[in-house]
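// run 5 | inverse folding | seed 20
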């Protein structure tokens, strides 16, 4: 691509790009930003890093810096995000009254690069259209991230950060399981994943947890608090029959978000409520919530039981990326330039299974009616899931009913296959 320069106040200014990071962090953020910076600097561009996500574009005094090679080389293999992140989402009033068009003009910006989830990508498209209406044309390219791994990239390609989060989460979950084995106790562990159970399933599999509960497992029945509790109880009972006094239950936070308000209130857990009267689930520990539910049930059954809650979420968002994500995020960062040079805009960058960098346009994965990107769920009908369910999980089955009557009156209520209607 031929470089252009414009003369501003008697100073020749390079074409520039601006990078911002939105949403929450994921391992590899700095790798993406550092790789973009190095690549565009090599091709003669000025690179601006914008702090505060989109809030900086709707401020008269945006907080930004010039990204140079040394800075990019210093941060590219670190966890966290050098560029301060934000979940700020502009309103129409912000576009009408607060958009800082001069920031783009004064800095001769030709490309807006956003790193974030689907909300960040959608806002980037809004900004690109808004600037076009103002006769200021810029390209926008999005780098998709989420440790939840629930963006629908083709061929089940993972979102960046997922593998690093899984690696660190597995270290924590392994230590927790070892504590249970050492002390003869149980642990209730919850993992991030508001819509999909990829992280919880991966953690449960790598650490051989005797019970995993993810929302996708309830594909043939409604999710209720009673069913979740009974699945955990089933694992405790099965291990008692095996002569094992310890264990751990891995639960995706998504199962709690799927519960109705009535179900949550029925748990007996004390919540704060929003202005609409809905329990504010984001303000409570999901592990603590479920641990209380399980404790109450075990006490009701008269079974001696001791468990502790552990959450795996914020602990894995800013860890140092693994080699997988260092390589993957470097490719995505360099891929931004490849797409830009080819004239692509309004798209996400992804690397296909053959290693080729390609654009993925939002219109191809958005719901045509709502405009939202549907989450990629765990495919429950795969050999992978079947093997975990059949060979790693421990739960009451028909052959255990007679022995289980020592602890419960109706063992059938704790048969996980019957609970799930499988």
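// decoded
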């Amino acid at each position: 691509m031929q470089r252009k320069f414009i003369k501003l106040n008697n100073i020749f200014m390079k074409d520039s790009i601006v990078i911002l990071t939105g949403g929450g962090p994921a391992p590899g953020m700095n790798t993406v930003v550092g790789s973009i910076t190095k690549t565009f600097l090599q091709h003669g561009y000025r690179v601006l890093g914008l702090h505060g996500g989109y809030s900086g574009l709707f401020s008269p005094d945006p907080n930004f810096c010039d990204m140079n090679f040394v800075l990019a080389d210093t941060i590219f293999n670190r966890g966290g995000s050098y560029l301060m992140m934000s979940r700020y989402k502009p309103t129409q009033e912000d576009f009408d009254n607060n958009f800082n068009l001069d920031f783009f003009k004064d800095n001769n910006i030709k490309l807006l690069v956003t790193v974030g989830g689907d909300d960040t990508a959608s806002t980037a498209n809004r900004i690109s259209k808004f600037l076009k209406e103002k006769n200021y044309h810029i390209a926008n390219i999005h780098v998709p991230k989420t440790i939840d791994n629930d963006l629908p990239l083709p061929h089940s390609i993972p979102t960046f950060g997922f593998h690093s989060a899984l690696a660190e989460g597995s270290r924590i979950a392994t230590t927790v399981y070892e504590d249970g084995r050492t002390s003869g106790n149980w642990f209730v562990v919850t993992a991030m994943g508001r819509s999909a159970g990829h992280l919880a399933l991966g953690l449960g599999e790598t650490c051989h947890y005797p019970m995993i509960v993810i929302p996708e497992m309830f594909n043939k029945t409604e999710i209720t608090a009673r069913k979740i509790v009974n699945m955990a109880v089933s694992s405790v009972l099965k291990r008692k029959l095996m002569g094992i006094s310890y264990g751990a239950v891995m639960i995706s936070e998504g199962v709690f978000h799927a519960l109705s308000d009535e179900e949550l209130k029925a748990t007996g857990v004390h919540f704060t409520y929003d202005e609409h009267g809905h329990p504010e689930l984001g303000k409570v520990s999901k592990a603590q919530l479920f641990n209380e539910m399980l404790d109450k049930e075990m006490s009701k059954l008269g079974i001696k039981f001791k468990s502790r809650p552990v959450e795996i979420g914020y602990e894995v968002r800013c860890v140092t990326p693994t080699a997988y994500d260092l390589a993957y995020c470097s490719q995505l960062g360099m891929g931004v330039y490849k797409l830009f040079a080819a004239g692509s805009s309004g798209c996400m960058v992804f690397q296909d299974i053959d290693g080729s960098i390609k654009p993925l346009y939002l219109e191809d994965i958005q719901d045509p009616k709502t405009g939202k990107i549907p989450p990629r769920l765990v495919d429950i009908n795969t050999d992978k899931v079947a093997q975990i369910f059949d060979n790693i999980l421990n739960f009451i089955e028909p052959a255990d009913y007679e022995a289980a009557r020592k602890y419960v009156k109706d063992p059938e209520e704790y048969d996980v296959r019957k609970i799930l209607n499988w």
